[in-house]
Write a structure and sequence with these properties.
Length: about 325
């Protein structure tokens, strides 16, 4: 028996109006054309303002005469680091960030753990979690500023029932920082709880069944199954909360309505300090320098979080 190779079929003809070379070129270029709109918008509204802000930070620019730019080099940065109020705002940013981020993530983790079990009305509770996040920053801050009023605030009224003297929440250093932190906690706890809940539901149920067969209690299951499975999610929320705490602006601005963040700058954050320099004192060059210091600080904090998480992962992998 002799076998004959089948005759080769001719390739289909190219569509009219497009040569084979043009078709291959379009096939290679089409993925870049699909993602081009995103990168175009990012370059126009993200990358260009960032680079232009760095350029402006090297000049003396006033809000009244933005076209009159005088070269200062690093003069804005040296003046910034020599300003006492800059270091006060940096310290306040760190303090308010810790007071708001740590309780917020801890409460969100606990709420997500409760919602992960079968409860009546779980859909209602999950929807209610997002209501504070959907509330306007201005509306929430104005309501909390009334609650923390010194003479007629509800918080001082409740403290008075317990025999505690009224607290001046808008004048005291720690009291005002704690008050601003509660606004941030109220707005973002439910949002982070839903993120943790989504992460918990992605953990295989077989791990819980195996732990239960080994006699592990609910608390042991949470420590040795839930938390290790949520580690990437916890790192993500910690990074996002750190960025948000560094850029905190609306809550301290509207809490009392002053750019200085209180009488003695007791709760002025870096975002509020930048706004005061640019639109309060009209120093756009120094405001741009503050913006770049905030950007470098965020990069440093995010890098530190990533380094700690990577070392923790390597340490547990080597066990």
């Amino acid at each position: 028996m002799t076998l004959t190779a089948p005759a080769r079929t001719a390739p289909p003809p190219a569509p009219p109006g497009r040569a084979p070379g043009a078709r291959r070129a379009w096939r290679k270029a089409s993925p870049y054309a699909y993602i081009a709109p995103f990168f175009t918008l990012f370059a126009a509204f993200g990358l260009f303002p960032l680079l232009y802000t760095a350029y402006v930070s090297l000049y003396r620019v006033e809000l009244q005469t933005p076209g009159d730019m005088q070269w200062r080099g690093l003069g804005n940065y040296t003046a910034l680091f020599g300003d006492e109020f800059f270091w006060i705002s940096l310290r306040n940013t760190f303090t308010i960030g810790v007071l708001s981020t740590v309780p917020q993530l801890a409460m969100a983790l606990g709420l997500a753990h409760l919602l992960n079990h079968r409860l009546r009305g779980r859909t209602f509770f999950r929807t209610a979690m997002l209501l504070p996040y959907a509330t306007s920053v201005a509306a929430a801050t104005l309501v909390f500023s009334q609650l923390y009023g010194r003479d007629f605030g509800l918080v001082n009224y409740v403290l008075g029932l317990a025999g505690i003297d009224p607290v001046d929440w808008q004048t005291g250093t720690f009291a005002s920082q704690a008050a601003v932190s509660t606004i941030v906690i109220w707005r973002w706890t439910g949002y982070n709880a839903l993120i943790y809940l989504a992460g918990m539901q992605s953990i295989p149920h077989e791990l819980y069944e195996a732990a239960e067969m080994d006699g592990a209690s609910r608390w042991r299951q949470f420590l040795h199954v839930t938390l290790p499975g949520l580690r990437p999610t916890i790192v993500f929320t910690a990074v996002v909360s750190t960025i948000g705490a560094t850029q905190l602006f609306g809550e301290p601005l509207l809490f009392e309505g002053s750019l200085s963040g209180g009488i003695s700058h007791q709760y002025q954050t870096l975002g509020l300090y930048m706004y005061e320099q640019g639109w309060g004192f009209f120093h756009l060059g120094r405001a741009a320098a503050v913006a770049w210091v905030m950007f470098l600080l965020i990069v440093l904090l995010v890098g530190a979080n990533a380094l700690i998480a990577r070392r923790r992962t390597r340490k547990e992998a080597g066990r």
